[in-house]
# Entry
Amino acid sequence: MGSWMTPAVVTAVMAHMNGDHAADNVVICRGLGGVAAASEATMTGMDVHGIDFEVLAGGARTAVRVPFAGAPLRERAQVRAEVTAMFRESCVLLGLEVPDHARGEH
# Structure
């Protein structure tokens, strides 16, 4: 897992993604996760190589893993940039306009 990626860090990222970016989770799982029919996506975990989601698609729940392009991550500051890049790439793959909050790395 990487010494900086403690259970507390993972919990904080999950709370932020599931609380503030639930719609972004769905876009990531539809785009990079390959589940085009995803209607819900809840982040369930993360390590230095990627993010785990539970996705609801067509009435069934399934686990989806989306790897970080820059894996393995070496520090916490990379998480936001990697997740933003995942979202931006998913928007492009799906033909969606990239929202302002995802145009640059925060």
